[in-house]
Amino acid sequence: MIPYKELCIKELTGQTTDATAGTRSTHAHGLGYAPTARHCIPLIRGVDGDVDDAAAINVVKTDATHVHVKCNKISRTFDLLIFIQHNTNPNFEA
Fold first, then answer.
1. What ranges do the domains of the chain cover?
2. How far apart are CA 22 and CA 30, in angstroms?
3. Can you spell out the DSSP letters for 5-68?
4. d(CA 19, CA 92)
5. What is the mean pLDDT of residues 18-32?
6. Of the candidates 76, 1, 87, 9, the residue with the CA atom closest to the CA atom of residue 41
7. pTM of the full structure
8. Weakest-pLDDT range from 18-22, 44-48, 77-81
9. How far apart are CA 43 and CA 82, in angstroms?
10. Which residues partner with 66 through β-bridges?
11. What's the rounded Cα separation, in Å, for the pair 73 and 46?
12. Strands 57-62 and 8-16: what pairing?
């Protein structure tokens, strides 16, 4: 089994969602290409660092410089993992 860190090409830690629930927030990734939403995994953290089961976060759009997310709760801290995409990652060598 390959550890997820070897498949993760970008890890944005300590990101915060918008102060208004349901409002889109924008987070820079700097990859130079738009990863697909299915390759972007947000992990919301609770106050004590555990996963926050009460909050839901969704990737709503990606572009060459940013990932845009929405959350059903206000100001949630999260980590965003972006994984390898074999067909669109210019830095990936098979």
1. 4-83
2. 25
3. HHHEEEEEEEEE--SSTT--EEEE---SS---GGGEEEEEB-TTSSB-TT--EEEEEE-SSEEE
4. 36
5. 95
6. 9
7. 0.79
8. 44-48
9. 11
10. 28
11. 11
12. unpaired
